[in-house]
Amino acid sequence: MTQDTTKATTHVCAELVPIFTNLDQSELLQISDLIHHHHFEKGSMLLDPDSQDLVIVRSGQVKVYQLNVDGKEQLLRVLVTGDYVGEGALFGVTMHDTYAQAITPGAACVITRADFEQLLLDYPAISLKLLAESAAKIAALEKQTALLSSGSIQERLMGYFNELAAVNGSSDFEIPMQRKALSSFLGTTPETLSRMLKKLKEGGLIDYKGRQVHLYV
């Protein structure tokens, strides 16, 4: 990543992140003094198991993944504007085989562990919001684990689509990641995923164009 020394984005990141909501402008500005701005290119590594920073995505997309016993990537989630990663390491939790890598060019804001610890002392309410956000992430990972334990790729894919429909409150929704990332998320290959999408469409269960999906069931 390359550092951005301009001040045009003074407190943009602080305003984007859910854990900093309910803070007033003066408090956001104080937080902004702790933030380091960086630009990244596609393929840049933003986080690895040795990192001790909080990384906030300001623009672009970042994949968070772990390496399984075979050394293959298992996608955990895709980060977009306002998402963050690295909070576990800030509390001394080892991020075993966890990486964050850019899948598009973009920009990020980084807060070091020492600065973040002081931030929590100054604003205890952030700790509570961070706990709530962490619980939501754990719940999402548990859902993914249950999804991956399904017997077939069709069950995994339909289970994922049903979840997206429920979250969006509509049978029409957008897949929030590229097809390659989705195949990794579901524990399959892009080729198998493409065949399954075609099969589901021909079977009248879904219709799709690009990342836009209509669920018929």
Q: What's the main sheet like?
A: 5 strands, antiparallel
Distance between the termini: 44 Å
Q: Quote the average pLDDT.
A: 81
Helix content, binned percent: 40-55%
Q: What's the alpha carbon Rg, rounded to whole Å?
A: 19 Å
- Biggest sheet strand order reads 1-2-9-4-7
Overall geometry comes to elongated
User: How many strands in all?
Assistant: 12
Number of helices: 8
Low-confidence stretches: 5-10
Beta content: 25-35%
| Class derived from helix and strand content | alpha+beta
Can you write the helix and strand succession as a string? EHHEEEEEEHEEHHHEHHEE
Précis, in short:
The protein is α+β, with helices and mostly antiparallel strands.
Can you describe what's shown?
With 217 residues, the protein is of the alpha+beta class. It is built from eight helices and twelve strands. The strands form three sheets. A five-stranded antiparallel sheet has the order 1-2-9-4-7. It starts with a strand and ends with a strand.
Helices and strands in order:
Elements: E1 2-4, H1 12-16, H2 25-32, E2 36-40, E3 45-47, E4 53-59, E5 62-67, E6 73-79, E7 84-85, H3 87-90, E8 98-102, E9 106-112, H4 113-122, H5 124-148, H6 153-168, E10 172-174, H7 179-185, H8 190-202, E11 206-209, E12 212-215
Antiparallel strand pairs: 1-2, 2-9, 3-8, 4-7, 4-9, 5-6, 5-8, 10-12, 11-12
Q: Key terms for this structure?
A:
217 residues; alpha+beta; 5-stranded antiparallel sheet; 4-stranded antiparallel sheet; 8 helices; 12 strands; elongated
